[in-house]
Design a protein that fits this description.
Elements (H helix, E strand, L loop, with lengths): L9 H10 L25 E6 L16 H10 L4 E3 L5 E3 L2 E6 L5 E6 L13 H9 L17 E6 L4 E6 L6 H5 L23 E7 L3 E6 L13 E6 L3 H10 L4 E2 L5 H7 L4 E6 L4 E6 L9 H8 L4 H8 L4 E3 L23 H11 L5 E7 L5 H12 L5 E7 L1 H7 L6 E6 L5 H8 L14 H12 L3 H18 L2 E2 L2 E3 L1 E6 L2 E2 L8 H4 L7 E2 L2
Parallel strand pairs: 1-10, 1-11, 15-16
Antiparallel strand pairs: 2-3, 4-5, 5-7, 6-7, 8-9, 9-10, 11-20, 12-20, 13-17, 13-18, 14-19, 21-22
């Protein structure tokens, strides 16, 4: 593929670096160098076992919320850009992208000769539709908060797209590379038989069960994809999932846990594939209802978790300790002036007493849909009993958790996959009215800080804005975030071409046209 030909004005370069790679997992140092690539082999069936399932599986990018959706999407569709190992945007359907001096207008030059899997040519109208559809309130897109700053998208000739913004955004190419912005045909409303420009055609699809794909012989990336077929299915039990890898029933599996990590790491035929990243599982309070609208009750929980024990015994060292806000300690945006919370029964007892919760039982909902949530709940439950707080863990099934439980009970477990920038995460998860604002925070002052974080050009001032955001969430009692969790997946040693991309499992969910099976 051509080298990235974007150009960023000098005045914006340092700022783009700060909120691009460094906003992920501390830049490339945690990711490691690129492996030396052997000549790719062609052919074969790649079987993937994932750790979650949902009857709401979909091929509509606007409805994507699950990792499985993202994987299916990258098999069938392409985006204007894609994210590399540093979380930076690289050209895909776009050949280049360039901002004006204030980053309020971006110009994307689009590749010529790209066709859909049915032979239809890619048009500029398709790209305009694929971005602007997210602004339609009737669609209820999961990306709706991300397009609030987009004023207009228009074609300028046969191979140019212009995006005009209400305010500056040097991260727009990164946002455009996220999964919800995959390109679909203009006017598409029926996604039961998806047609995209991507490396594979859908062969079969049963929501909540599995999906199979066959190679697109006319894919515009010459020589790709390398494998002939991909089959994705779901194995919820972590032991069974690891066994599927070790037995050869699957060549790739997501989410190795516990002793399975050691089993795979010592296998002659399989290997552990680790991606350091700012993914987290938290216990979040719905602040618009009782009893979770009591900040002191939430703050009591933040002092009842043994974070190091969670990291060492449950995560097997695969992560870093968090501090009850969503920014990772390895980021240059992290506020080191906030005291690191630890297990502190005296402080927990103080806030618990101040809450007036008394002898009532506190319910916390956990689920396999939120990895490690049961372990976090058990650690909280154990320490809570020592200050007179009774916690009951409600275990909910994974297949309906995100639709029926998450954010709809006072205290629920929430897992967030990383986003390429923290501003993107904050818009999706903390802005008033956002679809994934599971705490139902409605705080105009926080909304303004999120806007300021995107538009403030001065680095020192911008760091202060992020410090203010962290303190506001830290003090709110709305979340207990004990650790950031690496992705720990398993792959057959025959799988080649995979590199960690710190936004998701298995190369950031985007491996379809990159991997091959060594023969």
């Amino acid at each position: 593929m051509p080298e990235n030909s974007r150009r960023t004005p000098g005045a914006l370069t340092r700022r783009a670096s700060l909120i691009g790679g460094l906003a992920l997992a501390g830049g490339g140092a945690l990711i490691g160098a690129k492996p030396v690539r052997a000549a790719p082999s062609k052919g074969g069936l790649l079987r993937l076992a994932t750790h979650s399932q949902s009857t709401n599986d979909t091929f509509d990018p606007a409805k994507y919320i699950y990792g499985n959706d993202y994987i299916r999407g990258t098999c069938v569709y392409n985006s204007l850009t894609y994210l590399d190992e540093q979380g930076q945007a690289n050209p895909e359907l776009a050949e280049s992208f360039e901002p004006n001096d204030t980053a309020t207008r971006w110009v994307f030059k689009i590749r010529k000769g790209v066709t859909y899997q049915d032979g239809a040519p890619l048009s500029m109208d398709d790209i305009v539709f694929s971005i602007m559809r997210h602004k339609d309130p009737k669609l209820a897109s999961s990306a709706k908060p991300l397009v609030a700053n987009i004023k207009e998208v228009k074609a300028d000739g046969p191979d140019t797209i212009i995006v005009d913004l209400n305010g500056p955004d040097v991260d727009l190419p990164i946002m455009i590379g996220t999964f919800q912005f995959m390109v679909v045909k203009n006017g598409t409303t029926d996604f039961s038989n998806p047609v995209g420009t991507g490396p594979f055609k859908m062969k079969s699809f049963t929501p909540g069960v599995g999906t199979s794909f066959t190679r697109n012989p006319n894919y515009w990336k010459e020589g790709r994809p390398y494998v002939d077929e991909v089959e994705m299915f779901h194995v919820l039990d972590p032991v069974a999932r690891a066994n599927a890898l070790l037995s050869g029933d699957a060549q790739m599996v997501t989410e190795l846990k516990g002793t399975a990590i050691e089993q795979v790491s010592t296998s002659a035929n399989a290997a552990v594939f680790t991606t350091p990243c700012p993914r987290y599982t938290s216990i979040q309070a719905a602040v618009d209802r009782a009893p979770s609208n009591n900040p002191d009750l939430g703050l009591a929980l933040t002092y009842l978790i043994d974070r190091k024990r969670l990291l060492d015994t449950v995560l097997k060292g695969q992560g870093v300790i968090g501090n009850d806000h969503p920014i990772m300690p390895t980021s240059q945006l992290y506020d080191h002036d906030l005291p690191q919370r630890t297990l502190d029964l005296d402080r927990a007892k103080y806030h618990f007493g101040k809450s007036g919760f008394g002898t009532s039982t506190l319910e916390i909902h956990v689920s396999d849909a939120a990895p490690f949530s049961a372990d976090i709940g058990q650690l909280l439950q154990r320490e809570a009993s020592r200050i007179g707080l009774t916690i009951e863990l409600k275990r909910d099934p994974a297949d309906s958790y995100w639709n029926a439980v998450a954010g709809q009970r006072p205290y629920t477990s929430i897992t967030f996959n990383p986003r390429p920038t923290y501003n993107m995460l904050l818009n999706l998860a903390y802005r008033s009215g956002a679809a994934w604002n599971f705490s139902h925070i409605n705080d105009p002052s926080l909304d303004k800080l999120i806007d300021d974080a995107r538009s403030t050009p001065d680095k020192t001032q911008r760091l202060q804005v992020y410090a203010d955001i962290q303190k506001k969430i830290y003090d709110s009692g709305s979340m207990t975030l004990p650790c950031f969790e690496n992705y720990v997946d398993g792959i057959s040693k025959k799988v080649k071409g995979l590199v960690p991309v710190p936004v998701g499992n298995l190369a950031g969910f985007n491996f379809a046209d990159r991997v091959w099976l060594e023969t």
